[in-house]
Amino acid sequence: MEDAVKNVKEAITGHLELLAEMNKFPPEAKALDYWVKDEEYSGWAWALVEIDVEPYLGKSTKFNVTLPDLLSKKIDDQVKASPGLYKNRSHFLQVAALHELQNGIQK
């Protein structure tokens, strides 16, 4: 199983590298429940792999953002309440922007 997980990580990172070269975003992750309910994968063994997609999004650019106080506070509260999900406010905004660009009307 260890080799299978290692091979999966290598395949995913290779795919992410190709997407980056084509200036495309990585696909948004789906919950495990989504896949477990899919009959095509019924009876298969499951493993989760964690891959940070940030390196495949290109160089970071620093810029100032002006937000209303309440929105800024809500973002900070969410970051504090979700330490495993968001590294900081910038990471929260990055995740939110990526989600909107992947699922927004400009597909």
Structure description:
With 107 residues, the chain is an all-alpha fold. The protein folds into two domains: 1-57, no CATH class; 60-106. Helices cover 50% and strands 0% of the residues. The chain has four helices and no strands. The radius of gyration is 17 Å and the shape is globular. The termini are far apart. The mean pLDDT is 90.
Task: Summarize the entry for a quick read.
InterPro entries: HicB-like (IPR031807), TTHA1013/TTHA0281-like (IPR035069). By secondary structure, the chain is mainly α.
Our Rg estimate from Cα atoms comes to 17 Å
Number of strands: 0
Average pLDDT reading: 90
* Biggest sheet architecture: none
The termini sit apart by: 37 Å
**Structural class, from secondary structure content?**
mainly alpha
Total of helices: 4
